[in-house]
Amino acid sequence: RAGRRGEEEEEEEEDEEGCYQIYPGHIRTTPLQKVLLAAGSAVMALRDPYRHDMVAVLGETTGCLALPSLRDKMKHHPEGYRILQERPRIRLSTLDMGRLQGLPDGTLGREYVRFLEDNKVSPDTRMPPKFVDDEELAYVIQRYREVHDLMHTLLGMPTNMLGEVVVKWFEAVQTGLPMCVLGAAFGPIRLSARKLQVLATELIPWAIRSGRNASFILNIYYEQRWEQPVESLREEIGIFPPP
Amino acid sequence: VYQVFESVAKKYDVMNDSMSLGIHRVWKDILVHKMNPSPGTLLLDVAGGTGDIAFRFINYVRSVRERQLQRRLRHHQNLSWQEIAESYQEDKFKSLGDSQVVVCDINKEMLKAGKQKAQDLGYSEGLSWVLGNAEELPFDDDKFDVYTIAFGIRNVTRIDLALEEAYRVLKPGGRFLCLEFSHVSNPLISRLYDLYSFQVIPVLGEVIAGDWKSYQYLVESIRRFPPQEEFKAMIEDAGFFKVDYQNLSFGIVAIHSGFKL
């Protein structure tokens, strides 16, 4: 029997770890496993919002329809196409933090670094994709994750629960990823009544309007725009000034 | 194998409950009942990590001891108050009746987790925690009354060496007990079990422990382990007599037993 299991789909690739990986970190999964992962990660993410890895897994397992359309949007846009070709990564090792800090106030680079410092976050904590079965789509979701902090910067939202929900609404409108939609819909569950009111009356409508009006956020080559003032970038993309 | 258990140590118990739907507790209870230890038994629990077998052993021996004391008390009903209270005092220090369990594990993290659990659950006396390798135990010959290894032997590289070590450290008349995943012969149950193992368990590993790979490894290591008869032969090769096995849950798990004569 040579160690082969009587698995339903007869997928023997899973036997050897590292074999048949499409990209480093890739784990092959059967459709049934993806369904179970989606359900399990959804439950865990709701129960424990600090399980960022579960949010990530949910995104990967439910994104199979949305991700290809996101990739196509990028392909058909000159800047997006370049991003797909060059595959830039936003990590502490690739960013010149010193240079960004030295930029004038109000520029994307300066405000991004300020956001990272104020909220004590780092771009290196984004999970690499594991369950996406296409290498290019894996990059797309990786890019989406790494650009998330820039979304916070452009929308002027902090990383508390309220801020995250607002950004999720914006991202849901922009990307259509089921994980964003679920996060946007269920995130508010843990908020106080007062915050919910602000959310519902001001923040969400603004997020939706901006999301609809703005061009596709993954098509912006942020790394080449550090010197651009945030306001000008907002105008260019079509994000309305935050309330 | 070591790295698997480092990341697994903390969520070990939660994962065990989730994967086996709590049934692992029953399997372990059956093991200790089969052992039927009497007070004064010296147990070595190898790969005992978080202490499941050790705690059950202590509970069992305590309840046996309590029954002994109750019986003795009934015979002393003609004694005065003070005399009864005094005899009770003496016995209080021997609630375990000199029984002892040594928990031996190769992994520091598992031992740490076990010690913590013992503290949380209130187990203090009769327990020792030793770092050691099943293939080369840090104990002298002919020391223990019972040797157990529950869900640990499949992770040993040289199972034959572990069995020989088990034989060495047991006293003559000592008993070897192994609780381990085994082979399911019923074809229907086998298919369902495989389906569950390969589809659900890695997912549980990812969702609960954030660790797909360790649980994928777990499922594969179970399949690689020798089936009941073959393992029985290996135990006999190490010198044990009256080797037998008992299937639990259709053979998903089996308890193998042998004696050093």
From TrEMBL, chain A:
Species classification: Eukaryota, Metazoa, Chordata, Craniata, Vertebrata
Alphabetized Pfam families for the sequence: Coq4
InterPro entries: Coq4 (IPR007715), Coq4_euk (IPR027540)
A Gene Ontology BP annotation from the UniProt entry: ubiquinone biosynthetic process
GO molecular function, one term: lyase activity
Any one Gene Ontology cellular component term annotated for this protein: mitochondrial inner membrane
Domain of life: Eukaryota
Protein name in UniProt: 4-hydroxy-3-methoxy-5-polyprenylbenzoate decarboxylase
Key words of the record: Lyase, Membrane, Mitochondrion, Mitochondrion inner membrane, Ubiquinone biosynthesis
Stretch forming the signal peptide: none
Keyword Mitochondrion: yes
Gene that this polypeptide is encoded by: Coq4
Automatic annotation (TrEMBL), chain B:
UniProt keyword annotations, A-Z: Methyltransferase, S-adenosyl-L-methionine, Transferase, Ubiquinone biosynthesis
One Pfam family in the UniProt entry: Ubie_methyltran
Molecular function as annotated in GO: 2-methoxy-6-polyprenyl-1,4-benzoquinol methyltransferase activity
CDD domains registered for this protein in UniProt: AdoMet_MTases (cd02440)
InterPro entries, A to Z: SAM-dependent_MTases_sf, UbiE/COQ5_MeTrFase, UbiE/COQ5_MeTrFase_CS
GO-annotated biological processes: methylation
Known role: Methyltransferase required for the conversion of 2-decaprenyl-6-methoxy-1,4-benzoquinol (DDMQH2) to 2-decaprenyl-3-methyl-6-methoxy-1,4-benzoquinol (DMQH2).
Subunit structure: Component of a multi-subunit COQ enzyme complex, composed of at least COQ3, COQ4, COQ5, COQ6, COQ7 and COQ9. Interacts with PYURF; the interaction is direct, stabilizes COQ5 protein and associates PYURF with COQ enzyme complex.
NCBIfam families (alphabetical): MenG_MenH_UbiE
Name of the protein described by the UniProt record: COQ5 protein
Record organism: Lophotis ruficrista
Lineage: Eukaryota, Metazoa, Chordata, Craniata, Vertebrata
Gene: Coq5
